[in-house]
Write a structure and sequence with these properties.
Length: 618
């Protein structure tokens, strides 16, 4: 079925905005559930590879039997239809088999982030009927043969509009909200669609945080189309050289990256994506320069800018990029079986206005939040629509440009963040009277969160406090104390009057050892400094969660040591970390630095001695 033709927008023509916003209607299997489609492939191609984890290749038949065993165990524990089951958020074959088992048992899965503060974990666990403390191991063939018949004979008949999973997003009221996605949302995303074709020999990279909706695309696009996915470690995807090697080693043909990560990898190795069939990026406004570099140096077969909130099952609009015009990359047009209406305040179609999404990909609502659900999911003459809060404009030709937010919501490294939730966490400290949170560019150009507060508490004390209440990606890179928040003559917060953060810098003690020099060079590169002192604290000079992960990947690669990420948290200065590396680890390979690297480090040190000023801040 052909897409209804979008209008060519001309000044003397009244555009048909409704026609422009309706996606292609395709006969996708809208009554099928996720496990039913997966089991179809398991029966049709039982020996085909479904999941690749390190050197182990799990077939569709193995994953299917494993999930049957999980389903049988859950039902024996009393799981009833429609219950939420908490699952440790660890990317693995065991995770895939576990969530399939949950769905087969009639439940819905809720990924539990292992690195979140206890307070937030408790909020999620509180909505679960069952919480799995660990992922089940692969059972023996005897147990699987016993449970297969029991699982299939007693399997509840899930409906396509029943819950499949729950993901939590940042909440403007200070409390995260759980988004409930039905089976048909996932099926509509990856089956019989128009923005993506999946071949049986395609291999998808599975690397996104399981609490991030990109993982929905990464996991189900291959597994509901008979293709394969490769479990990819976070440290690998954050290093351009390591990820380029990973793509080649496993023959990966499709990957989805956050825009920030896409920009980072393109800066380091713009040609690394040349062998891909599909390269998707999204989550933030696209950077035209990065897109041009890929098109010029490493063009994949299909380069796609993707847009979609969690409430619309990961993706709602896509734009396949052939060139960049006017330094703006559109977010595209609605994918198949998705509606995208641009409406004004009176809910009338307009050229520019708030984006409203509709179709079978919409969430069922928010967990235990009927009022919020009715506010965000509204009934209109065009059907049930989700109010995105995004300001967009139609382009000539029927694609959409993203213009910004209508509220204070932010997107940082693909994560949706409500400043109100961070401000609520800051306000829980008894010494904080007022606070606000904004996004500012860091020294290296990347966006960072900056918190401003009024009260009787130091920035260091407040940082330690909110780390106990917020996940790492929501902790501000800088906390700035103020005597009072600046206001406009109308009494509103004056954002332009907020001062740039002055990061706390220690006394300028230059690197002395080889390890200190190599670490200092990495810090300067990632943080955008000309020089750094060995007693500077990574998190007090602008270090963010993404930069920490990048630093960890670089250290593992350049020092050839199997250092854990937690070691960087425990040793946040160059001096402490260098001592830890030199005294704790034995190199697992030849030393990463050659004589040329050592000479280069000494040259950088010489430049630093000329430039470093003890009183300087950044």
């Amino acid at each position: 079925m052909e897409r209804r033709s979008p209008p060519i927008l001309q000044a003397d023509v009244t555009p048909d905005w409704i026609a422009a916003g309706r996606g292609l209607v395709t006969p996708f299997p809208r009554t099928a559930t996720v496990p039913r489609i997966f089991s179809h492939w398991a029966q049709a191609t039982p020996s085909a590879v479904a999941v690749i984890e390190d050197a182990r290749r799990w077939t569709y038949g193995e994953i299917d039997r494993w999930s049957n065993t999980v389903a049988h165990r859950l039902r024996s524990r009393g799981l009833v239809h429609g219950c939420f089951v908490g699952v440790p958020g660890v990317r693995s074959a065991a995770f895939v088999a576990t969530v399939l088992g949950i769905l087969k048992a009639g439940g819905a899965y809720l990924p539990l982030a292992l690195d979140e503060p206890e307070e937030r974990q408790a909020q999620r666990r509180g909505v679960c009927a069952v919480v799995l403390d660990e992922l089940p191991e692969y059972p023996g063939e005897t147990e699987m043969s016993f449970t297969r018949e029991a699982s299939e004979s007693a399997a509840p008949e899930n409906a396509a509009d029943s819950p499949a999973y729950v993901l939590y997003t940042s909440g403007s009221t200070g409390v995260p909200k759980g988004v409930i996605i039905p089976h048909c949302g996932i099926v509509r995303l990856v089956c019989a669609t128009d923005y993506l074709t999946v071949e049986r020999d395609d291999v998808f990279s599975f690397h996104s945080n399981l609490s991030f909706d990109a993982s929905t695309f990464e996991m189900w696009a291959p597994l509901l189309n008979g293709a394969s996915l490769v479990v990819t470690q976070t440290e690998t995807v954050l290093s351009a050289s390591a990820y380029a090697k990973h793509l080649q080693t496993y023959g990966i043909t499709a990957t989805l990256l956050t825009t920030s990560l896409f920009n980072q990898l393109v800066r380091e190795a713009p040609s690394m994506f040349a062998g891909l069939r599909w390269l998707f990026f999204g989550g933030e406004a696209a950077d035209a320069m990065s897109v041009r570099r890929v098109l010029e140096h490493g063009r994949p077969q299909h380069l796609v800018n993707a847009y979609g909130p969690t409430e619309a099952t990961a993706l709602a609009l896509c734009h396949r990029i052939g060139e960049v015009v006017n330094d703006r990359v559109p977010i595209g047009r609605p994918i198949a079986n998705t509606d995208a209406f641009v409406l004004n305040a009176d809910l009338q179609p307009a050229e520019e206005g708030e984006l409203h999404l509709g179709g079978p990909g919409l969430a069922l609502g928010y967990v235990h939040e009927p009022q919020l659900t009715s506010e965000r999911f509204i009934e209109t003459p065009y059907g049930r629509l989700y109010k995105t809060g995004d300001l967009v404009r139609w382009r000539a030709g029927g694609t959409l440009d993203y213009l910004g937010r209508l509220d204070r919501q932010m997107k940082i490294r693909g994560f949706r963040i409500e400043p109100g939730e961070i401000e609520a966490a800051l306000g829980r400290h008894p010494g904080v009277q007022q606070s606000t949170v904004v996004v500012r560019p860091a020294a290296n150009g990347e966006p960072m969160l900056v918190g401003y507060f009024v009260g009787e508490v130091t920035a260091a004390e407040l940082r330690n406090f909110i780390r106990e209440h917020l996940p790492t990606h929501m902790v501000p890179a800088a906390l700035v104390p103020l005597r009072a928040l600046p206001l406009t003559p109308n009494g509103k917060l004056d954002l332009n009057a907020l001062p740039a953060p002055l990061f706390e810098r220690a006394a300028a003690i230059l690197p002395q050892t080889a390890s200190e020099r190599r670490l200092a060079a990495l810090w300067c590169e990632l943080l955008g400094f000309e020089a750094i002192g060995v007693e500077d604290n990574f998190f007090e000079v602008g270090g963010t969660s993404l930069l920490l992960l990048r630093l960890h990947a670089r250290i593992v690669g350049e020092f050839a040591r199997d250092v854990r990420l937690v070691a960087l948290l425990q040793h946040p200065t160059i001096r402490a970390l260098a001592l830890h590396l030199d005294t704790t680890f034995t190199p697992t390979a030849a030393r990463a630095s050659s004589d040329a690297q050592e000479r280069a480090a000494k040259q950088r040190e010489s430049v630093a001695r000329r430039r470093l000023n003890p009183s300087r801040t950044s």
